[in-house]
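Try this one yourself first.
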């Protein structure tokens, strides 16, 4: 694996466990397909890391292990030193918020406000703190004016921001976003980047949108065939045309990396 210089800007305190620590993670699906073949990944508190790779690389499978939605065939995942396992699922899911690729997987209540309140209420947050969290989460994503609307009446970009708010309301330490920019129009995509850039949570962004990764994440990890191939500053990773080509990735036509 090519580590290069991953760029470790974060808030890791000496002696403190990393925000995420994935060690030799392997996952084989019931049909026999090996999706993860030994992933090692450490993310310190406050880092924003893009997990890049072609379709079928194992990116979403990795994301689903980070709060226990999938169980490893081997290896471990730890969040702030706590191993992800059935006895710790409650604590892990409070600490790790997963935003799915399809916002409709997270939006199922009659109104936006009820959707955003669902998570913290489930974690035992009561009024008046519950209402305060809902307001703060919707403010953070620019959707406060839509609290009483049905999610089904919103655009794709608006629903994606509400899905993010449903996670933010539970105040997670780590945000995991699966393909957050997919199917977004340019304006909605820019608005989402601006929202995410204001957040202080540790962030793992699973994406094949290379410019989005560059805009948001100083560190990039290339995953393919279920293993980490490279871990570098995102700009350096995207400047390696041979590496991208070898793993079926390419920047959009006409996109140019500035010297940075």
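Now uncover the answer:
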């Amino acid at each position: 694996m090519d580590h290069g210089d991953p760029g470790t800007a974060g808030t890791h305190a000496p002696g403190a466990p990393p925000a995420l620590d994935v060690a030799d993670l392997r996952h084989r699906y019931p049909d026999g397909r090996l999706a993860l073949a030994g992933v090692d990944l450490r993310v310190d508190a406050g880092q924003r890391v893009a997990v890049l790779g072609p379709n079928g690389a194992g990116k979403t499978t990795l994301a689903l292990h980070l709060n226990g939605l999938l169980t490893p065939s081997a290896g471990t995942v730890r969040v702030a030193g706590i191993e992800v396992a059935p006895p710790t699922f409650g604590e892990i899911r409070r600490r790790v918020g997963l935003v799915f690729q399809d916002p409709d997987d997270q939006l199922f209540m009659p109104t936006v406000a009820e959707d955003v309140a669902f998570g913290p209420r489930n974690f035992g947050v009561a009024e008046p703190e519950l209402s305060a969290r809902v307001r703060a989460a919707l403010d953070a994503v620019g959707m406060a004016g839509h609290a009483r609307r049905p999610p089904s009446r919103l655009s794709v970009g608006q629903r994606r921001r509400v899905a993010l708010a449903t996670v933010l309301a539970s105040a997670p330490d780590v945000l995991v976003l699966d393909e957050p920019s997919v199917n977004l129009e340019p304006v909605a995509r820019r608005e989402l980047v601006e929202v995410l850039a204001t957040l202080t949570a540790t962030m793992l962004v699973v994406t094949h949108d290379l410019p989005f990764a560059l805009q948001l994440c100083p560190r990039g990890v290339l995953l393919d065939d279920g293993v980490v191939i490279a871990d570098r500053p995102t700009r350096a990773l995207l400047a390696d045309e041979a590496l991208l080509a070898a793993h079926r990735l390419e920047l959009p036509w006409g996109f140019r990396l500035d010297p940075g």
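Discussion: DSSP finds nine helices and ten strands in the chain. The longest strand covers residues 34-43.
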